[in-house]
């Protein structure tokens, strides 16, 4: 009996250690701004409180996630737009298979969203 309980406890602890973060995976990103619309395929991965990944805008254009953090379901990161000296400060909240957030750049704040890719 004690051995069975110990095995069950070890299984639960090990599965929680290897549990995937709600942000890990591939996402479809969309944002409309005064500078135009942006869509991208985004791959994100977390390790502890660090968030890494990349925005793939197609045509060979990619924007790496910089200074990414995750705290529960809340994420924050920066991306630098290619061809312009502009950094988007991004933050959002994961809710199941969607993320809603805001991007701030050059004094303007814009809503953005992501849905989990299938």
List keywords for this structure.
mainly beta; 14% helix; 118 residues; single chain; Lipocalin; 8-stranded antiparallel barrel
Q: What would you say this structure looks like, in words?
A:
The structure is a single chain. The protein is mostly beta strands. It has one domain: Beta Barrel (Lipocalin), CATH 2.40.128.120. The chain contains one helix and nine strands, in the order αβββββββββ. The protein has an eight-stranded antiparallel β-barrel with strand order 1-2-3-5-6-7-8-9. A hairpin with a 2-residue loop joins strand 8 and strand 9 (108-116). It is globular. The termini are far apart. 19% of the residues are buried. The model is unreliable at 4-18 (pLDDT under 50).
Sheet of most strands: 8 strands, antiparallel, barrel
Count the helices. How many? 1
N to C succession of SSEs: HEEEEEEEEE
- Give the proportion of residues in helices: 10-25%
Spatial strand sequence of the major β-sheet? 1-2-3-5-6-7-8-9
CATH class: Mainly Beta
What is the fold named in CATH at topology level?
Answer: Lipocalin
Give the rounded overall mean pLDDT. 85
Question: What structural category arises from helix and sheet content?
Answer: mainly beta
Measured by DSSP, the beta-strand proportion falls in over 45%
User: Quaternary arrangement of the chains shown?
Assistant: single chain
**What is the global morphology?**
globular
């Amino acid at each position: 009996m004690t051995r069975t309980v110990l095995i069950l406890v070890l299984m639960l602890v090990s599965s929680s250690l290897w549990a995937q973060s709600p942000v890990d995976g591939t996402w479809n990103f969309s944002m409309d701004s005064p500078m135009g619309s942006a869509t991208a395929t985004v791959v994100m991965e977390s390790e502890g409180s660090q968030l890494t990944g990349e925005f793939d805008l197609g045509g060979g254009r990619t924007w790496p996630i910089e200074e990414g953090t995750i705290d529960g379901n809340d994420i924050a990161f920066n991306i630098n737009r290619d061809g312009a000296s502009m950094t988007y400060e991004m933050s959002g909240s994961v809710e199941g298979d969607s993320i809603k957030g805001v991007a701030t750049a050059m004094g303007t704040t814009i809503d953005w969203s992501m849905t989990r890719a299938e």
